[in-house]
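# step 3/5: fold
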Amino acid sequence: MRILLAEDEADLNHIISQKLVSDGYSVDSCFDGREAIDILSYTEYDAVILDIMMPKADGFEVLKSLRNAGKTTPVLFLTAKDSISDRVKGLDSGANDYLVKPFSFEELSARLRAMMRSSFHHTDNVLSAADLILDTASHAVRRGDREISLSAKEYELLQYLMYNKGIVLSREKIENHIWNFDYEGGTNVVDVYISYLRKKIDTGYDKKLIHTIRGKGYVLREAKDI
């Protein structure tokens, strides 16, 4: 899943970005509110982490711009302020959650998972399709009684497919959600990683879960007929 991090403290920005990447997210980061507004105007994200106190435009301005554009992307505010009025202002402005500095990265990860569950209308960390199970908290993946080992990018792609179970996703949409601005690979990267996943998820099983929809993209679903 792809996240935008807007945090003006360079060291903290780097640390959070590295932690999120290690948790399996694709991350784009910026250091001021104006840049965040510009990026959000042309890029779709699964979640946004906003520091409130930033140069050029604060977190409230960024959030206002996002909501005025009609985007419902989940937003988590980061702030050094711990007053009830600040929390209320953040939530009433359209933020989905609020985390006070200093914070633990375990809590940040848990809050992101909760926002993702809500965004995709899930009630827990376990995603399933037929006998395929993915736990977003532990990153464990199983099909039947077999544990499946995935690379970070394979896991990220499978998670996105499972969050969108039954929905046909274009190659462009998948690429935009799984790979960030730093990606410099080939144009067929989605096809390559779908192939990797199929070998690990579907090989040896009569019931295939990952399907190609000619001219449209890919879908993960339990039935073969579309």
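# step 4/5: annotate
The CA atoms of residues 6 and 30 lie 5 Å apart.
# step 5/5: archive (pending)
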